[in-house]
Amino acid sequence: MLEGTIVVVPTKPTGWSLILRGALAVIFALVILIWSDITVAAVVFIFGLFTLLDGALSLGLWFASSKGTKNPWLLALGIVSVLAGLFAMIWPNKTAIIVVLIIGWWALILGVLQLVSALAARKMFPFWWVGLISGGITLALGLWLVIAPGTGILAMLVVIATFLILAGVAMLFEGFKTLRTASA
Questions:
Q1: Which of 76, 116, 149, 155 could form a disulfide with 100 if both were Cys (CB 3.0 to 4.6 A apart)?
Q2: Chain-centre distance of CA 40, in angstroms?
Q3: Torsion of CA 122, 126, 130, 135, to 10 degrees
Q4: How far apart, in whole angstroms, are the C-alpha atoms of residue 19 and residue 59?
């Protein structure tokens, strides 16, 4: 979604696309943070809208590129983003639950592996207990997300919003830098 801003030739359309995408990311994050009684379905729907617009901007940039500068990764990014956005907007509850469960199962498995690894390393590494603590925390997170995915995603909204603000600011910076380079 956001990390696919591959710029080969700095052009004004590329700069403006990055600026629009960065502004959308920051706005989406602020909506999540300000709208205190937001539901998971509403967040996923808004995320779907954001992803759809982000994908449309990527596709627009790809179609506007000249034949020699068309980046196939930008085309793939646009298609995947549009499809993900449509899926999230059509089935917001299913999308949210699927994502949280994937993260939850990943954290469960990772936590168990960290615990086993820490216990196996206790004779070789003096700070093996750090892995034990990390594994326990990761395992607890995984259990929480698998057992109560609805409340799990609400707690993760702040993390998601923080990521979007940082990614949005980076795209804004990159967009303005690209505009300056294209004008020079």
A1: 149
A2: 16
A3: -20
A4: 15
**How is residue 65 written in tokens?**
């590129």
* DSSP string of 109-131, one letter each residue: HHHHHHHHHHHHTTTT-TTHHHH
Quote the Cα angle for 172-178-184, to 5°. Answer: 140
Dig out the tokens for 80 from the structure: 């995947």
Query: In residues, how long is the chain?
Result: 184
- Per the CB < 8 A criterion, the answer to whether 100 and 152 are in contact is yes
Residue 138: CB atoms within 10 A of its CB come to 20
Instruction: Encode pLDDT of 4-49 as tens digits.
Output: 444 445 677 777 887 888 898 899 889 888 886 777 777 788 878 8
**pLDDT of 52-86, one tens digit each?**
988 898 898 888 877 777 778 878 888 998 998 89
Please spell the DSSP secondary structure of the chain, one letter per residue.
Answer: --TT---SS--HHHHHHHHHHHHHHHHHHHHHHH-TT--HHHHHHHHHHHHHHHHHHHHHHHHHS-GGG--HHHHHHHHHHHHHHHHHHHSHHHHHHHHHHHHHHHHHHHHHHHHHHHHHTTTT-TTHHHHHHHHHHHHHHHHHHHH-HHHHHHHHHHHHHHHHHHHHHHHHHHHHHHHHHHH-
Q: Which of 85, 74, 93, 100 is nearest to 28 (CA)?
A: 85
Could you state, in order of their start, the residue ranges of all structural domains in the chain? 12-183
> Rounded distance, CA 114 to CA 133, Å?
9
